[in-house]
Amino acid sequence: MPRIGQLEFALEYDKEVNELIISIIQARDLAPNQYTGTLDTFIRGILLPDIAAKFQSKTIKNSVDPIYKERFLFNIEPTQLETRVLQFQVYSVDKYARQKVIGESEIRVGDVDLNQPIKMWLNLRDISEEKPTEYGDMMFSLSYLPTAERLTIVIVKARNLKWTDNKDYGDPFVKVYLLQNGKKISKRKTTIKRGENTPVFNEAMIFSVPSSALPTVQLRITVAELLPDNRTPSLGHVIVGSNTSGTELSHWNQMMTSLRKPVAMWHYLRK
Questions:
Q1: Around Cβ 30, how many Cβ atoms within 10 Å?
Q2: CA distance 78 to 75
Q3: Which residues, at least 6 apart from 50, have a Cβ–Cβ distance to it below 8 Å?
Q4: DSSP per-residue string spanning 188-244
């Protein structure tokens, strides 16, 4: 599936005034106009299902990695947050002022822990694409602490999982392998979530990785299911590292450019 860039945004909820603060920070790796080699873009957003809750950034010219840094405020009761879906659309503008959607993404506000401000990257997709839900997707954060040579992954949650025997729920857990040059060096796993459909883990795993080894390591993150006969079939996996590609490489590179700070992203599971 073609990747057509990513969008970074932040969410914050001010409980004292029931205000949701949406910050559009930047986009990166957008596809340039084939004739000009560059791009003029703006972001349009909407807080579904309220079609009146719209916002739009200013236009940034001549950049495939535009920086917006704009904030938008909406009054929303806490009980309504769970039902809201935040949709972003990236528009390009040509010299005749014609506008075209070049990518979109969305996130359920209820999927985000708003007890503290959070920054996230979303993968953009072509509006003609179906949302990929074949195996489901998962969210995790990555961070690297150079002084301690410590690589930390926090398994946050998974959704839209495809259980064996077409069940509606299962007993999922997540295994994380540290690979070096393709060989398994270390392994961690989360607790098992019993009878879950959309498991929330929020579990951190720490691996010792010298900075000199970072170019040669990968993390393989597998969502597995515990069956009554103690088999643990894989429901799908993600591999991140410096020698991966697409979203997985983007997440790794963002970790490397924001050392010490956790970077969270959703990833599609593969088999």
A1: 22
A2: 10
A3: 84
A4: EE----TTBSS-EEEEEEEEE--GGGGGGEEEEEEEEE--TTS---EEEEEEEETT-
Decide: 196 and 173 in contact? Cβ < 8 Å.
no
Q: What are phi and psi of 257, to 5 degrees?
A: -95, -5
Q: Which of 78-82, 135-139, 186-190, 250-254 has the lowest mean pLDDT?
A: 250-254
Cα distances from 95 to residues 38, 61, 269, in angstroms, run 12, 11, 39
- Tokens matching residue 24: 């559009």
Contacts of 95 (CB under 8 A, 6+ apart): none
Q: For 5-15, how does the pLDDT look when each residue is reduced to its tens digit (9 = 90+)?
A: 889 999 999 99
pTM of the model: 0.63
Residue-by-residue DSSP string for 30-70: PPPPTTTSS--EEEEEEEET-TT-EEEPPPB-S-SS-EEEE
